[in-house]
Amino acid sequence: MVRTTTIEVDGRSLRVTNLDKVIYPATGTTKGDVLDYYLAIAPTMIPHVAGRPVTRKRWVHGVGTADAPGEVFFQKNLEASAPSWVHRQDLAHRDHTNTYPLVEEEDGAATLAWFAQLAALEVHVPQWRFVDDTTARGKVVHHPDRMVLDLDPGPGAGLAECVAVARLCREIVSGMGLDLVPVTSGSKGIHLYARLDGTLASDDVSAVAHELARSLEADHPDLVVSDMKKSLREGRVLVDWSQNSGNKTTVAPYSLRGRERPAVAAPRTWDELDDDLAQLGPQEVLDRVARIGDPMAVAGTGEGAEDRLAQYRAKRDESRTPEPFTSSGRDAGGPPTFVIQDHHASRHHHDFRLEHDGVLLSWALPRLTPSSTGRNNLAVQTEDHPLDYGTFEGTIPKGEYGAGTVTIWDAGTYQAEKMRDDEIIVELAGRPDGGLANDGGPQPPTFVLIRTDAEKRQWLIHRMDKRKHRESLRRRGLLPAAGPDDGAPPEPAQDLRPMLASPADAVVRRDLARAGADDSPWALEMKWDGIRAIVTVDPDARTWSVRTRGGHDVTAGYPELAELVDRVHVPAVLDGEIIAPGPDGTPDFSRLQTRLGLTEPRDVERARRTAPVELVLFDALRASGQDLTSLPYTQRREALEMVVDAGGTIQVPDAVTLPLEDALAVSEKLGLEGVLAKRRDSVYRPGVRSTDWRKIKHAQHTDVVVVGWRPGRGERTGSIGSLLVATRTSDGLRYAGRVGAGLSDRDLARLEKKVEPLAADEPIVGDVPAAESRDARWLARGLLAEVEHGGWTGSGRLRHPVWRGLRPDLTASPDGTVDA
């Protein structure tokens, strides 16, 4: 029985369950103990995670034991069921968008408590933060404000060896003018953190850390290794530099660890790093913080980080040059600015500058600003400049840095299509008499900047013709061909039925062993435990609709999916699955049951509070008025990712690149149904169950028809005891057995309301054994449902069936003998 209570954290109410559940069996540490630790450490921990997207590592059923470890999974996306006060931020990746939770000063303690409620023991964050940026009208990714070195001992090495390597690292990093703070990781090794000033991109920091690791390996080959290969790590310590990548995360300082015994990633002092060093538990960490404070404070929280203009000022003498040294404020509501300056220095060049994050990002263009799409010009990134440089014209005196005459070639505002550490795409709006409007280049002037060498800060700049680029995408089949209906509202999808997958038997599974590999003809996707949905979206008219596999319009039942009109860029018809995540984020079909068949707004809103849904999209059938079903799967997936800006309640899952058996293992750990294998060259065949798509489930699911029920005994006296079910065949209904397992009190109450008006004297199926029909109550019309089972007996009965729920989304029989 679930034991529930509500706690108050800084004015926020949080519903928590089963606080006496043991999470660490070796010590008897409970969920309540985990929650108490995070509440106590919150004031110290929050400054180190604030502004950073959190990836959680969860042990829903506890960490287990050494012989039987508990199941664990990483969770990036914020659940739709998350409390509204949890801060969140979207992060666009190359092919999808994730919505991450943030632990901010405001509501941070309550958010950590919510993590504990979900058994998210470990909190992982990157070395960079989101920062407010008026030029982007929201939050943007800032350069990293800290560097981390992860000292990971190989077999035969331990903390003593990590201490020795830590001292070697400290000696080198001190010579760079940086201080290192050691953190015993709570696992096997030590993390070393250094505060940075935010002027270097993630790739630059990774390059520095990598070079440091290689240098240590060269000087101490018997102690240090910089290569990740496990075969090289015997008796040595890996200096893992890779966690400085913008795509990587590290367990946060003061986070618990999901080991056999509870331990903490604990900041330490250098005086503590001796041969007796040990990992610390949560109470030891709390006692230390109360006694000596936070050793990590020296590594900084990002606030007060060194001025990003320090390098600019270091190169100039304010008393000798007319160049500006300030960044005056500007209209926070206006678009970001750009300037291209014609610089007659020792070598004539253009300076290309973009306002971003409170400074002007700057590049020198030795071959000037490209006026055609025919070539890529070198762009050398220089130091950030103050915003006031955007209006600077004048002569820099001889002998000063950049000596020569500077004039403005063009200036104005820009719109960023992409703003990443390694790639930038901007559309510029310059002056009517400026250089861009009169250089003969394609309009509107759009430039792509691509980093080619992280260590030397070299980029290429390319002038893009947006019209030709769009035509190129159309020729490759990634956008529909232009025509009179281009951009027209999508045709109604009531006649479209989803394409269905055929089961994969043992022989087919052997053939699919390499599915998911780049050179395999098969792609893999996770199989979601929900109901299939064909959605029609017209973002221009701000209309949307949802139809089930059986063609039923259920739009009114899922108001949260109205987010589609903001997430889908063009009129489209898309294929996906509606899921209802449970408290642990896993799709919960029984929870989804409470949403099925509801149409009245009051009923929908009530159910929505306890069972919010999400839409997982995996195919595009129409876009901009064009039919995409004849395109191969790979091109439809690319089109889907182009037209959908995933996030919030609308998700586009990543492709699965693991071998089939590994993918199945991950799917099972995540509580999903299984995996789908789809031929990369397969077209979309509406309404067809095709062998081009194969489903591999952890358990078998079958659609059944409830034809009657038997009264209950014991605890179910006076209610339904079991259901009598049949399957539909080409010859009509065939009896398939009884189902009693899996029926919850909520299921029984709902079924009683359904069966009462359908009572009949005779069954609608004819082959029910006498022993099972003796006290049966029959239905005049069957109810569509779904069960999970372990196969079939020789007589055609379900083996060990378990109730999953009614399926009103499926198609009813034309003769009326079955109700949807």
From TrEMBL:
Compositionally biased residues, Basic and acidic residues: 312-321
Protein name, UniProt field: DNA ligase (ATP)
Organism: Sanguibacter hominis ATCC BAA-789
Entry-linked Pfam families: DNA_ligase_A_C (PF04679), DNA_ligase_A_M (PF01068), LigD_N (PF13298), LigD_Prim-Pol (PF21686)
Annotated stretches, region: Disordered: 312-335, 471-496
NCBIfam families: LigD_PE_dom, ligD_pol, PRK09632.1
InterPro entries reported for this sequence: DNA_ligase_ATP-dep_C (IPR012309), DNA_ligase_ATP-dep_cent (IPR012310), LigD_PE_domain (IPR014144), LigD_pol_dom (IPR014145), MtLigD_Pol-like (IPR033649), NA-bd_OB-fold (IPR012340), NHEJ_LigD (IPR052171)
EC number: 6.5.1.1
GO biological process, one term: DNA recombination
Signal peptide limits: none
PROSITE patterns: DNA_LIGASE_A3 (PS50160)
Record's keyword annotation contains Magnesium: no
Similarity-based family: In the N-terminal section; belongs to the LigD polymerase family.
Record keywords: Ligase
Lineage: Bacteria, Bacillati, Actinomycetota, Actinomycetes, Micrococcales
Annotated GO MF terms: ATP binding; DNA ligase (ATP) activity
UniProt catalytic activity: ATP + (deoxyribonucleotide)n-3'-hydroxyl + 5'-phospho-(deoxyribonucleotide)m = (deoxyribonucleotide)n+m + AMP + diphosphate
Residue intervals of the ATP-dependent DNA ligase family profile domain: 606-729
Presence of the UniProt keyword Transcription regulation in the record: no
